[in-house]
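Example 9 (inverse folding). The structure is encoded as follows.
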């Protein structure tokens, strides 16, 4: 595998991080939207892109405050289609452009909607190879789900990009230096997400759900993720504290239980976190491969010779990786040869 090398015209963690959301010419694949009703009478929306009607199916999971419209999601859908993959991008609850119908939404450790989606897809397509890629928060959800399900995970392989493997360390790092700019923007978007949901619940007359959001109090004074997660995630999901939420939801503690070929892609200069989030070798399943780069920022990995012709390294690497995993000639360690240690019950290392 050719590792990522940043171009001369886009050095540094912040330029790599900001290029796609600010400057990328966004692909606009002709997607088809589908809504699934969830067991708790809510819904999730997903966007399909399948210019070729057959082929393996890749599930894409976006990051915090993202959606299926995020440039890294749409770009990957186009890149995968060029290699013969069909894709379906999940919008976490309330991220599809329409607030969902419950006070609950999504968080870094909420895996039930992903599990539900995979189950529904498998019922439709019992023979299709499924794969998955998650970015940032979506990567944490994906890795946690893989560790929880172990040998029963109903996908062939996965890639997780720029994952906050230790949520507590990431929350603290975002309170420092330039990273506070990202923190402030994300917190503002989250507050708007809650406010929009409350307004929608009131319009729909769902008073019981609306009252759960009102009970959170005024979110405007919140300045840190520690405070937001203690108040909002803790209040809605029953965590006693932000630390309790971080301990239960950080994907690093689940890596040893993964029983599907999984590649974790991480830049050491990611401005959302520090290298301290990375696991030690003994914390990794033999099926987990760490791909570390000195640079790349957060969900960046932009290359190419000139700024008017940028390249996107992930969009070349991921389809090639999935193709190799699916190839009968590719040797891989058999998942069934590994015991399920139940590491998701162990304390965070």
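The amino acid assigned to each position is listed next.
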């Amino acid at each position: 595998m050719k590792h990522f090398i940043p171009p001369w015209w886009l050095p540094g963690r912040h330029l790599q991080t900001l290029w796609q959301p600010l400057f990328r010419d966004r692909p606009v694949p002709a997607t088809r939207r589908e809504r699934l009703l969830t067991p708790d009478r809510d819904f999730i929306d997903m966007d399909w892109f399948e210019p070729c009607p057959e082929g393996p199916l890749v599930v894409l999971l976006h990051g915090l405050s993202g959606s299926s419209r995020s440039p890294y999601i749409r770009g990957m859908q186009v890149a995968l289609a060029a290699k013969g993959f069909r894709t379906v991008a999940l919008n976490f609850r309330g991220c599809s452009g329409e607030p969902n119908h419950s006070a609950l939404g999504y968080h870094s450790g909420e895996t039930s909607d992903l599990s539900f989606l995979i189950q529904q897809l498998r019922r439709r397509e019992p023979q299709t190879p499924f794969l998955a890629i998650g970015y940032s928060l979506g990567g944490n959800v994906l890795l946690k789900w893989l560790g929880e399900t172990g040998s029963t995970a109903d996908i062939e392989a996965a890639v997780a990009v720029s994952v906050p493997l230790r949520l507590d360390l990431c929350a603290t790092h975002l309170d420092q230096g330039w990273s506070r700019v990202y923190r402030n923007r994300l917190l503002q978007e989250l507050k708007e997400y809650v406010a929009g949901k409350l307004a929608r619940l009131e319009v729909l007359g769902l008073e019981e759900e609306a009252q759960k959001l009102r009970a959170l109090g005024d979110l405007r004074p919140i300045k840190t993720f520690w405070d937001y997660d203690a108040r909002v995630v803790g209040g809605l999901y029953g965590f006693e504290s932000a630390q309790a939420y971080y301990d239960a939801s950080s994907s690093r503690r689940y890596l040893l239980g993964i029983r599907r070929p999984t590649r974790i892609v991480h830049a050491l200069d990611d401005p959302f976190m520090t290298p301290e989030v990375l696991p030690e070798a003994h914390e990794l399943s033999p099926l987990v491969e760490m791909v570390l780069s000195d640079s790349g920022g957060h969900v960046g990995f932009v290359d190419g010779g000139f700024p008017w012709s940028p390249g996107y390294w992930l969009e070349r690497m991921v389809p090639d990786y999935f193709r190799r995993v699916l190839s009968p000639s590719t040797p891989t360690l058999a998942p069934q040869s590994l015991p399920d240690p139940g590491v998701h019950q162990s304390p965070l290392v």
